[in-house]
Amino acid sequence: MIADQTKMRRRRFLALFAVAIIVAVVIGCAFQLWLSYSKGGINLYHYTYSDNNIRGFRDYQEPMMHSVEKIGWQAPFFLVVEWW
């Protein structure tokens, strides 16, 4: 265990890891926003910034626009994942 090797209490490590996760998320969000707005989303990898949000809808455009005889397991699974 890390706590045993460093001679620190395990409860203190919980607080340390929680703070580290929060700091990492805040820095990651700030970097992502800075990168997107300074470089422009259109100049970056297109899949993440311009295509990822509509790819699932494009895959199921035919069943959504017209009636189909049978809907497979993919359609309900996709909607659950998108709404979750």
> Approximately how much beta-strand content do the residues carry?
under 5%
Shape descriptor: elongated
Supply the number of helical segments. Answer: 5
Span of the ends, CA to CA: 36 Å
Helix content: over 70%
The major β-sheet equals: none
Q: How many domain modules?
A: 1
Instruction: Give the radius of gyration.
Output: 22 Å
Task: Label the structural class.
Answer: mainly alpha
SSE run: HHHHH
- The parts where pLDDT drops under 50 for at least 5 residues are none
Mean pLDDT: 78
Could you tell me the number of beta strands?
A: 0
Give the SSE layout.
Layout: H1 2-6, H2 10-39, H3 46-59, H4 61-65, H5 74-83
Describe this protein with a few key phrases.
mainly alpha; single chain; elongated; 84 residues
Tell me what you see in this structure.
It is a single chain. With 84 residues, this protein is mainly α. It has one domain. The chain contains 5 helices and no strands. The mean pLDDT is 78.
